[in-house]
Write a structure and sequence with these properties.
- There is one protein chain.
- The protein is α/β, with parallel strands linked by helices and 406 residues long.
- It has two domains: 133 residues, Aspartate Aminotransferase, domain 1 (Alpha-Beta Complex); 252 residues, 3-Layer(aba) Sandwich (Aspartate Aminotransferase, domain 2).
- Helices cover 36% and strands 15% of the residues.
- A seven-stranded mixed sheet has the order 2-10-9-8-7-3-6, with helices on both faces. Strands 13-14-17-16 form a four-stranded antiparallel sheet. Strands 1-15 form a two-stranded parallel sheet.
- Helix 2 runs antiparallel to helix 9, helix 4 packs across helix 5 and helix 10 packs parallel to helix 12.
- The longest helix is centred in the C-terminal third of the chain and has 27 residues.
- The radius of gyration is 21 Å and the shape is globular.
- The model has no long low-confidence stretch (mean pLDDT 96).
- Bound molecules: pyridoxal-5'-phosphate (PLP).
- The site of pyridoxal-5'-phosphate has 14 residues, from helix 4.
C-alpha cells in the first residue's frame, strides 16, 4: 500500500484565506453582500496596462502563424526576458547579476515554495514572525519542522524571528543556529521596509555562518524612500549568500497571468557546489517554462511605455495606501506600513484579538481585512488592510471604520 507524506498532516489549519472566505460567505448568506468592501487578499484590481496587452496580442498572433510559432519554451526562460531583467532590475541599479543567473518561472509563490528542495532535510529554517505562510508550509511538507506546540503555535525545529513595533518589524539576528533564512522586504504582511544597513547585518551574518538567505522582493516596486534596497544584491557580499525571488504580480498586475523569476548567483556555493546548478537541474526536471506569450508580456513591462504605465499603477495603489494610513492615523489608530508597501498593518483597537477585530469589522462596517495572527503568533493584535482596491472603496472603508465603535 502506498504511504502518504505524513508531513502534510502536520500543516496547521486551513489556509488563512480559505478561513476568511468561509466567514465572509457565511456572513453574506444572511446580510446584503453588496455592501462588503474587500481589503483582505493581496490581489490587484487594475487591468493589465496597454503595453502588456499589446505584447500579448502580438505574441498570440505569432503563436497562430506557422512561421513564428513556438513550442516548449527554454525551461530557464527566453533570453529576451532574462536579458531585460538583468539590464533593468540589476545592472541599472549597479548590481552585478547576469542573465544566466536568472530563472524565469510562473511566479514567486511557486519559487518560494519550491526553493527549499535544493537544501538538505536537516537544515534549520528561520522565518520572520509574522510571515508569508508559504515559507513555513513548504518546509513542513519537506519535514524540516519538528513537533508542534499547541500553546505557542510553533514548531520545535523552526527558528522564529519576532517582528514587532519594537524592532520596526525587522528581526534581530538569531541567537540559535539557522541555516536557511527567509526574509521578505518590503514585507508581507507588516508593510515594513528594511534599510541597507539592517540588511547588511543579515548578509554579514549569513556569510560568517554559512547560512543562505532567501530574499523575497515581490513588493520591491512599492519602495518610495531613499536608502531602501530594491534588491539584496545592492548589499556587498550578497552574491555569496543570497537567493532572490521576484514576481510580476504586484508591480505589473500579473496575478492572473503568472510570471516571476529567481536569482541564484554563481558565487553562491555550499559544500563546494553551486546552488545555481541545483536550481537549474530542478527547474529543468520539473518545469517546462513560462508561456511564450506571458514572457513577451513580461518583456513589455521593461519597455519605456511599459515602465511608465506600470509605475502609474503602483502609484495608484500607493495613493490608496497613503489615504488609508494617513486617515486611520488621524483617527487615532496605530498604523504601520503603507509607505513602501501596499499593505497597512494596523494595531487592533482596545484589546481585541486579530480575529475579534475581523469579526467586528465585518459585522459592524462590512469590511474584510486579514487577521495578523493568521501570519504567526507575533501578528496577534494586528490586522492587515491592503491598498489594492478602488480609491472610492478606500475612502468609504476609512469613513466606515471612523464611524464604528470598536
Ligand atoms: N511572495 C510574497 C511575499 C507574496 O505576498 C506573494 C503574493 O501575495 C507572493 C510571493 C506570490 O507572488 P506570485 O503571484 O508571483 O506567485
Amino acid at each position: 500500500m502506498a504511504d502518504i507524506n505524513r508531513n502534510y498532516l502536520d500543516l496547521q489549519g486551513s489556509y488563512l484565506f480559505s478561513a476568511i472566505a468561509k466567514k465572509v460567505r457565511e456572513y453574506s448568506e444572511t446580510h446584503d453582500s453588496r455592501r462588503i468592501i474587500r481589503l483582505g487578499i493581496g490581489d490587484v484590481t487594475l487591468p493589465l496596462c496597454h503595453a502588456v496587452t499589446e505584447a500579448l496580442h502580438k505574441a498570440v498572433d505569432e503563436m497562430g502563424n506557422a512561421a513564428t510559432f513556438r513550442g516548449y519554451a527554454p525551461d530557464l526562460g527566453y533570453d529576451f526576458l532574462r536579458n531585460a531583467i538583468a539590464e533593468n532590475d540589476f545592472k541599472a541599479r549597479g548590481c552585478d547579476i547576469s542573465a544566466d543567473e536568472i530563472f524565469v518561472s510562473d511566479g514567486a509563490k511557486s519559487d518560494s515554495g519550491n526553493i527549499q528542495e535544493i537544501f538538505g532535510p536537516d537544515n534549520i529554517v528561520a522565518v520572520c514572525d509574522p510571515v508569508y505562510p508559504v515559507y513555513v508550509d513548504s518546509n513542513i511538507m519537506a519535514g524540516r519542522h519538528g513537533k508542534y506546540n499547541d500553546a505557542t503555535g510553533t514548531f520545535s525545529r523552526f527558528v522564529y524571528l519576532p517582528c514587532d513595533a519594537g524592532n520596526g518589524f525587522c528581526p534581530d539576528l538569531p541567537k540559535e543556529k539557522a541555516d536557511i533564512i527567509y526574509l521578505c522586504y518590503p514585507n508581507n504582511p507588516t508593510g515594513a521596509a528594511i534599510t541597507k544597513a539592517e540588511l547588511k547585518k543579515w548578509v554579514d551574518y549569513a556569510n560568517s555562518t554559512g547560512a543562505v538567505i532567501i530574499y523575497d522582493a515581490a513588493y520591491e516596486a512599492y519602495i518610495t524612500e531613499e536608502g531602501i534596497p530594491h534588491t539584496i544584491y545592492e548589499i556587498e557580499g550578497a552574491r555569496e549568500c543570497a537567493i532572490e525571488l521576484h514576481s510580476f504580480s504586484k508591480n505589473a498586475g500579473f496575478t492572473g497571468l503568472r510570471l516571476g523569476y529567481t536569482v541564484v548567483p554563481k558565487d553562491l556555493k555550499r559544500g563546494g557546489t553551486e546552488l545555481r546548478s541545483l536550481w537549474a537541474r530542478r527547474h529543468g526536471t520539473k518545469y517546462n517554462g513560462a508561456p511564450y506569450i506571458v514572457q513577451r508580456a513580461g518583456e513589455a513591462v521593461y519597455s519605456p511605455e511599459g515602465k511608465r504605465q506600470v509605475a502609474e499603477q503602483v502609484a495608484f495603489y500607493l495613493n490608496n495606501a497613503k489615504y488609508i494610513r494617513g486617515n486611520l492615523e488621524a483617527a487615532g489608530f496605530t498604523v504601520y506600513g503603507g509607505v513602501n508597501s501596499p499593505y497597512i498593518w494596523l494595531k487592533t483597537p482596545g484589546n481585541l484579538s486579530s480575529w475579534e477585530f475581523f469579526d467586528e469589522l465585518l459585522s459592524k462596517a462590512q469590511i474584510v481585512g486579514t487577521p495578523g495572527s493568521g501570519f504567526g503568533a507575533h501578528g496577534e493584535g494586528y490586522f492587515r488592510l491592503t491598498a489594492f482596491g478602488k480609491y472610492e472603496d478606500a475612502v468609504e472603508a476609512v469613513s466606515r471604520i471612523k464611524e464604528t465603535a470598536f
